[in-house]
Amino acid sequence: MISQVFILSSKGDYLIYKDFRGEAGKDSISVFYEMVTALSGDQPPVVMTHKDLHFIHVKQGGLYWVASTKVNPSPFTIIEFLNRLAALTKDYCGSLSEKSVRMNFALIYELLDEMVDYGYIQTTSTDILKNFIQTEAVSSKPFSLFDLSNVGLFGAETQQSKVAPSAAATRPIMSGRGEQGGKNEIFVDVIERLSVVIGSNGMLMKADIEGEIRVKCYLPSCSEMRIGLNEEFSIGKSQLRGYGAAVHVDECSFHQAVKLDEFDSFRILKVCPSQGEQTVMQYQLCDNLPCAPPFRLFPTLERDYGNRLLIYLKLRCDLPPKSSALNVSITVPVPKGSLSLSQELSSPDQSAELQPKNKAILWEIPRFPGGAQLSALFKVEVPGLSSASLLEVGPVSMSFELPKYTCTGLQIRFLRLTPTQPGLSQRWVRYVTHSDSYTIRI
Amino acid sequence: MPYFGSDETVKELKRALSNPNVQSDRLRYRNYVLRVIRSMTQGLDVSSLFMDMVKASATVDIVQKKLVYLYMCNYASHKPDLALLAINTLRKDCADPNPMIRGLALRNMCNFRMPGITEYIQQPILTGLRDKASYVRRVAVLGCAKMHGLQPGTEIDASVVNELYALLRDPDPVVMVNCLRALEEILKDEGGVVINKPIAHHLLNRLKDVDSWAQCEVLTFLLRYHPRSDNELFDILSLLDDFLHSSHAHVTAATLRLFLQLAAALPAVQADAVLRVRGPLLATCGAQSRELRFAGLCHVQQILRSQPEQYGAHYKRFFCGYSEPSYIKFRKMEILVELVNDENVALVLEELRSYCTDVSPELAQAAITAIGRIGRTYSEPCLDILTGLLALKQEHITSAVVQTFRDLVWLCPQNVPAVCHALDGSEETIQDSEGKQALLWLLGVHGAEISSAPYVLEIYIDGLKAELSPTVKLELLTATVRLFLSRPAETQDMLGRLLHYCIAEESNMCVRDRALLYYRLLQCGVQETKKVLAGPKSDPSMAVLTGRLQEPIGQWASIFNTLEPLCGAESWQVTASGPESDILAQRTEGDAIPVHRTEEDVLAGTAEEGLSGVSHTDEELMLSAGPHLSHEAFERLWLELGVSHCEALGFPRPHSAPETLQAALQLVKIQTLAFSRGETLPWKAYVYTHSCGTLILAELLQKDSEDSEGSLVVSVKQQSEREQAVQGFLTVLRRALHSLSMEN
């Protein structure tokens, strides 16, 4: 039972406020904002209580999405609801930002009015909601040259002509209402998040993959879609199928709308996608990477004469030669009190800087081709350097994106729409692996 | 919220809204209405536009209608008389051929929170309940609840209630769930909606048709239902089975809660259900949404209270990602401490070690504390890590390590030599008062084994004038007096200086009084001082009390899937440092001697036993499990009460697995609170039970020699003295333990 829902900008501006039950006053917004900004880093902010009012919030797109309640509800329900609200807002407005929420506040009010009545969740399904939503979205991003800066996220720099621009999937789902056709697109994304810990001896200590298949659909009418996965796809411990390179996951769960009657024999998912974004399948794989971890690091630490610490890093990318990693950034913790840094990097597009606040060196590589090896030499000036200070160097953490690459090897064999849409529908399949947490101990 | 030029804006909007040119241009009209709503959201008072907005509601443009309704709901309570003007339009809309308009109007009309509205909405609601469009029925059903909420205290309309119960059979799932919600609110004073067998089975059968939100709610309502027979129970459980694996975290959690409640009498079924949600729950702990991740972690923590071994193999899932916010990292560290076992201890420690040099001092300290907690079971590797950290010579790290050392030696005396060796030189680095206190305590209590102890204390005494914290001064006084007792020759001079300074120059009353107290005490003689100050240097039995013990699932099942596991700072502090802070409080006082029986007590106990050695078989069955006792409460009571009875049972302790022992005692209504693990000696167990209206606490103690018969000693404490109750308890206990020993 939700008492109020409100959306605040990170600066505390009121963007959306809806009171469902009249139990609490409007001043609860400022109470919430004061509480959330006064929290110290170690306090969990998800649930906060003021008198008898509980605030549950999530942070998405730089905004606070808050629900307040006077009862003791299921935290999972409220959190998932707020996430769903944010996702729907993203679907309807195209993107999630303070600007888009500001511009489309009428639409969001309309959504909220249909989603929740008297504090009870009524429906959040796009298929039902689209019948009731009348307001048209105002696209917050017409066209800007700056948008091109993130082209390549999904591998736009290939020679193929049929590559979706990265901004294609960030438009409102309902905007094509008047002009049918041309925009009948469907995107199927395979997104994996990789979390890896590599020990100081180069051993793989932990390697988890959380993956999902996400469908973003702009087709106005619902038709059945068949998604074919690798035939050698196996779940759990025992099964082994086919002779090819098996794709294996530990656990797998599906959206409730997915029909699985052909899954066991042919590895085909059948789903009638509703408009907007939805996750049709989620899977996990633990401790059993089918490929080598994408990066290996060979560090050498040396105490130079005086107070200088030499960090020599050799970084190898073990991806296949055709793939490459983008936006690689490496964080190397350095001893407390490090003063200055001089570096030798192997190419001019890389950069490195010392961040005294985080006592770390940040080394950034915009593009790292598979099979390549890069090295860097950092000389750090540390007053009062002792041999114990070397213990403070490490663990190194990395973040990167691997476009067109999945670590599990999961592929989409085919994507069929039945009945076949007349001509104009376009189907895109995109793969990407993100680093959730990639840590290498020294 | 201050808003500049607010008057101007309102005036301008008013002018525009009443401009006939604007009114005739649909788009412009809507845009001005939009601006009103925007100003309203930003906190500007636009209630003076009410009249114009009422006019704007008479339009065919649905978007504009919705916006105006939003406005009206917001201000209806401020302008009830004007709101009545809008009622007419709304009532007309309630009869619109378009169900969407009907529903919209009815919903918003019910949302007007003002007195006197009920007479206008009653009829439309009743009509709405029988509307052919499910959308309108949904709205009307909740309208009943809103109407009831507007006039609290009035009599419940039985016909409406009956109609709502009938609508539970509505083909539309949302109408069904809304009926449950509405009935719950209307019948709140009578205990809410009644879930009888037909309704429960109806709900269970419809569960597949409703969406995930409604599923959760229905599952929560079903918590109220108690199946009549085992067959029915198992039918329900097998029906719920699929939902345990739902792809929605909230459905999984709600199902598990219901499962645990239904199977409250079947621990094996409960354990199995908990095992089966492990996969989904672990997935939630790795979810993309951080908030969801956090909720998952908090609930895993609850499960760990009963079944730490289930997650032991999955410890890597709880390694911290470097980009995670620290509140998630803290939870993960707590979980790692809980699930550590022989197989994973090395890798868990290695991981925790890498957090100790984190850039955030709080995080580093939490990691060090976590290593200390693991050190209670696996001392050697933990001490190696902690000692290594001292070499970094960083303030916050050294301070945390020394505090951890202090807690560790109090619980595990076998670590004293290693700790004493490692402390050397740490006084140069520690700056904060918490760390100083810990170091001083160690120097005072274990000064005999730290060769440099007097010199370190001297440094502190010399720098006393610059010391700001009174608690450090108090600790310094106690430490110096204690060290004087063990190494008088080296300490005498500085103790004199310290006492002189504190008595003559110190401005803090508390410190001065403490100094005077020690001074007078020393005047009474060294023996007297020793009696007071040289208490035990450690208390391993505390480790048994504060150590982990597997609680029954019922302990947390009722708070599962509520806000409680996640809840704010207060409870976070209680769970993080509850028992330890108690111990610290005692220790800094320096004079409390916990859990120590005097000789007299023991003698008195055995004498009594001799007198009334007859077994009271008649009263023996009077034991009852009674309310559960928390560790803290037990500890407090145990320290408060004197031993009322003590006797040797005449046979050694049963060598069965701890779980068997616990289960056996549970059978005879004796609750086990804590016991030593494995074959360690002395072996201890703490149990309690209720009998004849009194609470009985007991300690079972097996001293070192296993072979000599009859070395299991039981000492009993009672809240109010009842000899009969004790005898009954002993008989039951003896029989239970004896039968266990026979089995082996």
CATH superfamily descriptor of the largest domain in chain A: Mu homology domain, subdomain B
Q: Work out the helix count of chain B.
A: 38
Q: What CATH first level of the domain at 622-743 in chain B would be assigned?
A: Alpha Beta
What's the architecture of the domain at 622-743 in chain B, going by CATH?
A: 2-Layer Sandwich
Largest sheet of chain A: 9 strands, mixed
Q: Can you count the beta strands of chain B?
A: 6
Pfam families (chain A): Adap_comp_sub (PF00928), Clat_adaptor_s (PF01217)
Keywords (chain A): Coated pit, Membrane, Protein transport, Transport
Protein name (chain A): AP-4 complex subunit mu-1 isoform X1
GO biological process, one term (chain A): vesicle-mediated transport
Overall description:
The complex is a heterodimer of chains A (442) and B (744). Chain A has 442 residues and is mainly beta. Chain A folds into 3 domains: 4-130, 2-Layer Sandwich (Beta-Lactamase); 181-291 and 405-440, Sandwich (Immunoglobulin-like), CATH 2.60.40; 295-403, Mu homology domain, subdomain B (Immunoglobulin-like), CATH 2.60.40. Helices cover 12% and strands 41% of the residues of chain A. In chain A, the strands form 6 sheets. Chain A has a 9-stranded mixed beta sheet, covered by helices on one side. In chain A, strand 20 (351-355) and strand 21 (360-369) form a beta hairpin. The longest helix of chain B is centred in the C-terminal third of the chain and has 21 residues, at 569-589. In chain B, helix 27 packs parallel to helix 29 (488-504). In chain B, strands 1, 2, 3, 4, 5 and 6 form a 6-stranded antiparallel beta sheet that branches. The chains are: A mainly beta (442), B mainly alpha (744). The interface between A and B is large, with 91 and 97 residues. Chain B: Pfam families: Adaptin_N (PF01602), B2-adapt-app_C (PF09066). Chain B: Keywords: Membrane, Protein transport, Transport. Chain B: Its main location: membrane.
